Amino acid sequence: GAVVSQHPSRVICKSGTSVKIECRSLDFQATTMFWYRQFPKQSLMLMATSNEGSKATYEQGVEKDKFLINHASLTLSTLTVTSAHPEDSSFYICSAREPGQGRYGYTFGSGTRLTVV
Amino acid sequence: GQNIDQPTEMTATEGAIVQINCTYQTSGFNGLFWYQQHAGEAPTFLSYNVLDGLEEKGRFSSFLSRSKGYSYLLLKELQMKDSASYLCAVRDRGTDKLIFGTGTRLQVFP
Fold first, then answer.
1. pLDDT of A105
2. Which of A50, A77, B32, B61 has the greatest count of CB atoms below 10 A from its CB?
């Protein structure tokens, strides 16, 4: 089946630094990648949608200058949390959309636990 | 806007049946998904409904009523390993994005 590799799985960084999270679709071309954030005991909140070769579309209330998304190829999308602060500590997870696969066309990465100290 | 609501927490006994409800108000509906998620892990796909009615898949069934903006996930013969969060998600017609509900934490007791 379709696999999305997400790295790193865990990262601890200092306040003010930037962190990059990668999601790669291993055996299919992901025309669209969705990025979610999940706080403890809460559901997944959609942050942005990225399409290969174009600018990401951000959900209301998500700062595009803080959460930089790049979808340079059909198999790789990255999320960079810039100037991270403790309130950015969360579980970040990507979901790749494989066209033509209907209900099965959403494959999630394994998530990244970000802790900002 | 979009509003997708679920009960926050539920408890049930091993071997029992539990129904988890999801109500939604969305601007462009193109199907409803149910996912299971264990803490710190990715969601795993359980079921999908796009037409009204019941979809059955082993111990899990999901129901949809588009006119009422309502779905439920039915879990039968509960097992301890079913303790997890259950998320409903609505697919947006225009963008294909999945918008997740508030999530329900289910705890199964022996």
1. 80
2. A77
Residue A102 CA to residue A34 CA, distance in Å, equals: 16
Question: In this predicted structure, what is the pLDDT of residue A8?
Answer: 98
Contact A79, A96 (CB under 8 A): no
Tokens of B60: 């899990």
Average pLDDT for A67-81:
93
What is the residue-averaged pLDDT of chain A? 93
Q: How far is CA B95 from the centre of its chain?
A: 21
Q: Touching check for A12 and chain B: CB below 8 Å? A: no
- Distance (Å) of CA A110 to CA A45, B3, B39: 16, 26, 11
Output the DSSP codes for B14-42. TT--EEEEEEEE-SSEEEEEEEEE-TTS-
**Residue A47 to chain B, least CA–CA distance (Å):** 10
Residues of chain B with pLDDT under 50: none
CA distances from A9 to A96, A112, B65 (A): 17, 4, 38
Task: Say whether B48 and A106 touch across the interface (CB within 8 A).
Answer: no
